[in-house]
Amino acid sequence: MSDFDGLVALVTGGGSGIGRSTAELLSGRGARVAVLDLVANDLPDGMFFVRADVTDDQSVRAAVEAVVERFGGLDVVVNNAGIGAQGDVSAATDDEWLRVLDVNVVGMARVARAALPHLRNSSSAAIVNTGSIAGTAGLPQRAVYSASKGAVHALTRALAADHVREGIRVNAVAPGTADTPWVQRLLDSAPDPAAERAALEARQPHGRLVSADEIATAIAYLASPLSGSTTGTVLAVDGGMDALRLRPRG
Ligand SMILES: NC(=O)c1ccc[n+]([C@@H]2O[C@H](COP(=O)([O-])OP(=O)(O)OC[C@H]3O[C@@H](n4cnc5c(N)ncnc54)[C@H](O)[C@@H]3O)[C@@H](O)[C@H]2O)c1
To answer: Which residues does the annotation mark as catalytic?
Structure first.
């Protein structure tokens, strides 16, 4: 028996990067997995793709209902879909603020809202949100994105409080900079991609980028019914970036 045997998991943003790794890991550990995304190419056999935009409430509700109809219920929601934003507060337009908060924060709330009636019917209900080191540490040129991820961490704790007595656990992961298609796009757009990559690696005490599989493992830990007493936490998966203060090498 595996810990996710018999459970149904919905992973938003499961078409790429961290979400993709999480969908594959949960599937490998016995879950029936649905991927909610704008696009998802080459999903493994047996994974159910529901096309939806987390900024569109109708499409989110329809996607959740399609998953429940297909698999007969819903136990685990991984709220992972998100977009980035670069720049300081002067550079960010109102449109950018509203767009990023709509995807990264309200998107998670929409998915949780649509899923809650089904999670209440599960004896292994869990939501895991993807936060970020940007939600806990001040990073340069990330004003809008950081505000959105700080809100994800706060939303995680608020949801955990509201639903603990219904048997629904809510947690988040806070990854450091991870080796995903998103970060590769950022590197590709830098004037010197190799130098930019080296700077990002050096910023993390363990000296490298975090892998998507390492974040998926943390998400699976929080989502697992074996973690029944863990709720309201934000688990750093950042090579020590948030918690450690190293002396310079020398
Ligand atoms: N990569 C990192 O360094 C890093 C670090 C910390 C946190 N995160 C967070 O991890 C999550 C996943 O990031 P990733 O690096 O895997 O990125 P990614 O770009 O590889 O994957 C993100 C996925 O979300 C989907 N998505 C975007 N907008 C959507 C929408 N409106 N509706 C539905 N799906 C949508 C995309 O289509 C894509 O498949 C994000 O929430 C991101 O903020 C990433």
So the answer is: 145
At residue 89, what is the residue type?
V
**Distance in angstroms between the alpha carbons of the first and the last residue of the chain:** 49
Q: Beta strand pairing status for 76-79 and 178-179?
A: unpaired
Residues 190-224 pLDDT 10s: 999 999 999 999 999 999 999 999 999 999 999 99
Expressed in angstroms and rounded, the spacing between residue 68 Cα and the centre of ligand 1 is: 24
Q: Does the beta carbon of 132 lie inside 6 Å of ligand 1? A: yes
Alpha carbon distance 59, 53 (integer Å) = 6
Q: How much is the pTM?
A: 0.98
**Rounded to whole angstroms, how far apart are CA atoms 48 and 70?**
8
Looking at domain 8-175+210-237, what is its CATH homologous superfamily? NAD(P)-binding Rossmann-like Domain (3.40.50.720)
Question: Among 11, 21, 37, which residue has the most ligand 1 atoms within 8 Å of its CB, making it the best to mutate?
Answer: 37
